[in-house]
Structure formats: C-alpha cells, structure tokens
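Dear Dr. H.,

I hope your travels went smoothly. While you were away I took the liberty of generating a structure for the chain from your last submission, since the lab meeting agenda had it listed for discussion. I wanted you to have the full record in hand beforehand rather than looking at slides cold. The sequence, exactly as received, is reproduced here:
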Amino acid sequence: YDHLDWVRDDESLAGLADLAVPRPTDTFLDLATGTGAVAETIAASVTLAVGVDLSLGMLRTRRSKSGFAVQAMAERLPFSDDAFDLITCRNGLHHFCDPRAGIAEIRRVARPGGRIVISESLVPEGSIRHFWRSVMEIKDTARHPDMYFTADEFCGYLNKHGLPVHSIRVCRRPFSLANWLDNGCIEPERQDRIRKLLDGLTEARKRELHMSTKDGEVWLLRRTAIVLSGRPRSRTASA
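The corresponding predicted structure, in token form, is as follows:
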C-alpha cells in the first residue's frame, strides 16, 4: 500500500495540508487514515491528531509520527459531537459502506466552523468516463457503486449531503499502470483484464485517457479533487 504512487505523493499531501490550514490549537481527525500519510503530514502542526481506519492491519503499520490510532467504522465514529476542529479524508469516501452516513458522522463530530478537507479520485469527463469506470470496477471491487464522479458531480454530491464546498483543487498527475496494478493487491486475472481493455483502445480513445508509453511502461493521468468544506456556524455562534 505504501508503495502506491498516490499514497507517497508529497505534492498532493502538501496540497491537502495547504487547504486544511492546520493550527496549533486544533484537534484533528483523519478518516480512512490507512498507514497515516496525511496524519503524519499534519500531526506536528496541531495539538491532537487521531487517525481512524476500519483495517487493523493498516493501523498496525501506521507511521510513527501520525498520532493516535482508532479502529472504527466511519459511519459509527466513537467520538462525541463537536469534537474536532479539522477533519480530513483522503481518497477514502468511496470505500465507506454508506458514504451518506459517513458524511453525516463527519458533520456530527466537526465543531461549528470547523474545516473539512476531502479528496477523491475522479472519472474523466466525456464519453471515455464509462470506459474508465468499467476499468475501475475491475480494479477496485470494494469501491461504492455511487462513488464515480467528475469534479462538478463530486461538489454537487457533497453540497447535497450537507457539506458546502468552499473551494476545490483538481490535481492532474501521470501515474504508472504497473505501479497502480502491482501494488494494489489485484489478482493476476484482473490485471490481465485491465491490460487487455487498455490495449484494445483506439489511438483516439487513448488520447482521451492521456495514455502514453515511455520506455515500455504505460502511463495514464490521475485526476483527484481536493475539496475544502466545513460545518457552518450556528446563528447563535455567529451572533
């Protein structure tokens, strides 16, 4: 997992932290923390850092400077209301069993006026999105069926479910097909299916995917949305 290029992408981690604006007085929650890349990036800048993940294996291999770790479902967080000033979730919402319930929990444990930063991988716009979704469905069988968005669709989804979007950054970064498949715990049969689908594309369709070959290795373009949201302050608090 830690060898996946997007996990160790310092540029995207810095971009997420830049939107989050961590403060020394913050209590900070990182949902779907994995091995703690985001938590490690932010922990030194806040007063308390907590990472939550359903996978005990991930938590056992978390980075040493990533703060406290808690095993829990995102849809049933073991924290009181209004507990955190800052909440992040990096490429994890699509793995929630019930993303809407997870968003409701994020709202519940965020303090009024708190910052919420969520990133998600995107599907490309245009007709090629349907092809790319079919590839992602083969590659990531645990992905929630509702979690295939363009940037505009992702913002609309968050707004609809109570997380107003204040700003968004869309990162576009080349990635190696071999790295994406080889470090993703994907059976050889599924890897072969994906490679055959990509090999069968016309040159025009390959250009739509920004697919290229360099030194015998296939490269594609990853699109990731990083969204800054927050729990609105109550009228009483604003007064």
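Two observations you may find useful: The longest helix spans residues 128-139. The radius of gyration is 18 Å.

With kind regards,
E. W.
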